[in-house]
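Example with several molecule types.
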Amino acid sequence: MRQSGMGDPSRRGFLKVFGAAAVAAGGVGALAGCGTVGGAKNTSSAGSASGAPSGSITVWSWANPAAELKALVPQFNAVYPHVQVSVQDIGNPAIWDKITIAMEAGGSGLADVLHLGVDYLPSYIEKFPDGLADLSGLGANKYRSAFAPGLWETVSRGPKVYALPWEANASGFFYREDLFQKAGVDATSLQTWDDVIAAGKEIKARTGVALLAIDKSASQADSANLFQLLLQLQDSFYFDISGRITLNTPEAVTALTIVKQLGDAGLVFDAQGSPGSTGYDSAVKNGDVAVCPDPAWYGGYLETLAPADRGDWRLMLPPSVTAGGSRSAIVNSTHLAVAGTSPNQRAAFAFAEFMLTRPSSQVSVFKAKGIFPALLDAYADPVFHVADPYFGGQKYAEVFIDELSKPSYPTNYTSDYARALKLIDDAQTQVLQQGADPAAVLKSAAAQLAAQTGRSQS
Amino acid sequence: MTGVHVEAHVEAPVPARTRPEEPGARSGRGPRRPRRYGRLAPYLFILPALTLFACFQLYPIAWSFVLSLYHTDGTIQTWTGLGNYRRLLHDPLFFTALRNTLTILVVQVPIMLALAVGLSVALNSALLRWKPLFRLGFFLPVVTALVTYGLLMGVLLSDNNGAVNWLLSTVGLPKVHWLTDPFWARVSIMLALTWHYTGYNAVIYLARLQGIPDEHYEAAAVDGAGPLRRFWHVTLPGLRPALVLTVVLSTIGTLQLFDEPYIMTGGGPNNATETIALYMYQTGFRYFDFGYACAIGYALVLIISVFGLIQVRLAKEED
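Resulting C-alpha cells for the full complex:
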C-alpha cells in the first residue's frame, strides 16, 4: 500500500482542486434549501356541484388527534360511502414545515384537509391568500354560533371562513392537592398571582417542591406559555386587535415581572421543554412541581402521563393577575381547514363537518384522548359531567365548560406570531437567567419586532 | 495539472490526421458516425447528472437569487432590489449568528483537526493492535445520522436527568447546565461536532499517512531525528495536502452549521448558539420571509467563498 505518492503532483493537485470545488459546492449547498417553485396556481373546484361527495381525500394531522380522526373514518364512510379517506400522522411540529413548503410551492403535494393550530392559522390565511379554501360557499356559515365564543372570529375574515374549530383549550390551573395540604395552603383561596407566589414559597419551604416548571432557556418555541396566560388574564396579548404590537405595555411588564418574581424566589423548576414534551412531562411525573397552569388538553394527558398520581391532582380556574380580574383565557385552539388547491373540496369539507360539528364525533374523541371540543352542543353529553377519580372526584370538564362559556379576550395572533414568540422567549430567558429588567427587555423586544415586521406599537 | 494541458493539445490534431487513412473515408458516412457518437458520448454520460444538477441545484440557486431581490410575504412578492441586503446590515440577530458561527469555527475546527492528526498517527502506528476495531470505533460517529446523534447528545447532556450530569455527580462535581447556559451550550455544540467529525478527518489523514514512504522516516532516523522531529519534518509535510483539504471542508461545514444547534439547543439560550444557517431556516420556514432568507443564504455564500479562496490562496503561496 505504501507507494511513494507524496511527491506526485497530480494527487496533490487533485486534493487542491477538490478543495476548491468543495468551496463552490459548499456555497451552492447553502442555497439549495432556499429555492422555491413559484407560480403554479391551481384553483380547480369540486368535481360536481351537486350530489353526494365522492373521490379520495388526504388528511394531515398529528399524534392523538390523527389517531382519533382515523378511528372515526368507518363512521364517516357509513354516511359518505364514496369518499376514500387517508389520515396521515405527520407529527407536530413537522406538520408546519410540510404545510409551509407545500403552500410556498403553490399547493402541490398538499393534503385536502389540514389540522391547523391557532398560532399558524393567521399566517396561512394572510400570507398564502389562495392556500386555504373559503368554506362559506360550502355551507360553513350555518355553524357560526355552534362553537365556543371568540373562535368564529379566529377562523373567519369578513365574509370568508377558512376553517372549522376543533379544540378549544381554556387554561386550567392543575395543582397537587396533596402537596398543598402538606404545606397547609388552601388552593381554592388563591385569588391572584400574588397569592400564588406566597403559596409557592410555603410549598417550597415545607415540601421542597418547586411551584411550577418553565423552560428557562427556551429550548422550545412555546416556552413563554405562562407569560402569555398572564397577559391574556389582563385582557392583553402580543398584538392588539388591529395588529399593533403590545409588548411594551404595563400589562406585559406586569406579566413578565410575575415570572421574574417566581424565578427569583426559586419557585421555578427549569424544565427543558414545554407541556407535552419530555423535559416538562418528566418533571410533572417525577413530582418536581406542584402546579401546571396548562391548557385543557393537559388534563386528559395527565391521566395517562402520571397514572400513579391518581387522586392527587385537582383543577381550578387560573387566579387573576389583578384582584377581581379575569380568570378565564382560551390559550389556544386547533382547527380543520380545506386546502385551496384541493380538487375535492366538497368531500374535504364534508369530512371536517362530520368530525367537528357532530356532537357524537367530538364526544368519542374527548372520551378517548381528552381533547377538549369547541363544539357547544357536545357539552350536553354526560361524559363532560362525570366525577373523575383522577381529580379526586372533581367534575373537571365542567370547569372548562364554565370557562369557555364566558366571554374571553379575543386574541389576534397575526401572521407575525412566530417572530413575537421568539423575541418573547429571548426576553424571558434574559430575565430568568441573567436577572434582566422586565421593562427593559420588553421595550427592546417590542422595538425589534416593530423593525422586523413594520408594525407600529400601541 | 500541466500534464492535462499537454495531453489536450496533443490530442486535438490527431483526428484530423487520421481521417483520410480510414477505410470508409470516401463514402463519408460509416467511419464518421462512430466518431461523432464518440465525441457525444461523454456528454451523454454526464447528461443525467447534469439534468439533476440543473433541476435541483442550478435552478434553485438562480431562483433564490432572484427571490433575494424581492420582499416576500408568503406568496406575495414585491420588488425591493437590494432592500433585503440593506436590512441584513442592520439586523442584530444576523450579526449574533455570524459571531456565534465564527466563534465555533475558530475554536472548534483547530481542536478537532489536531485531535484527528493525533488519532490518525496513533491508528497508523505499528505498535497498535486491533487496528480495524479502533478505526471502526472512531469512524462510526460519522455514519450516525445527524438527527439521531443530535437527539442522543440532547439526552446525554440534559440538565435534570442527563447521563453526563449523573456521572459528574457520582464523582462529586457540580451539575453543569450543558444546554441551558449560554457558555456551556456553545461548548456542548462544539463537543458534539468534535465527536461526530474527528473520525472523518482522521480517516482522511490516515489514507495520506499510508502514502508517506517508510524510507523518509528511515532517512530522518539515520540523520538523528527523534520521534517528535520525525513527526514535525516528515509526517506533517506529508499530511499537508490532506490538511488543506480538511481545513477547507471543515470551514465550509462549520459555516453551514445547522443540524446540531437545531436539534440540541434550537439556537438558544438567548441566541447563544444561533447560527447563520439556522437563522436562514427560521426566517424562511418560521416567519415565511423567503426573500430575506435567500438574502441571508447569499450572504453566507459570500462569506464561505471569501474564506475558501483565502485558504486555497494561502495553501498555494506556501507551496
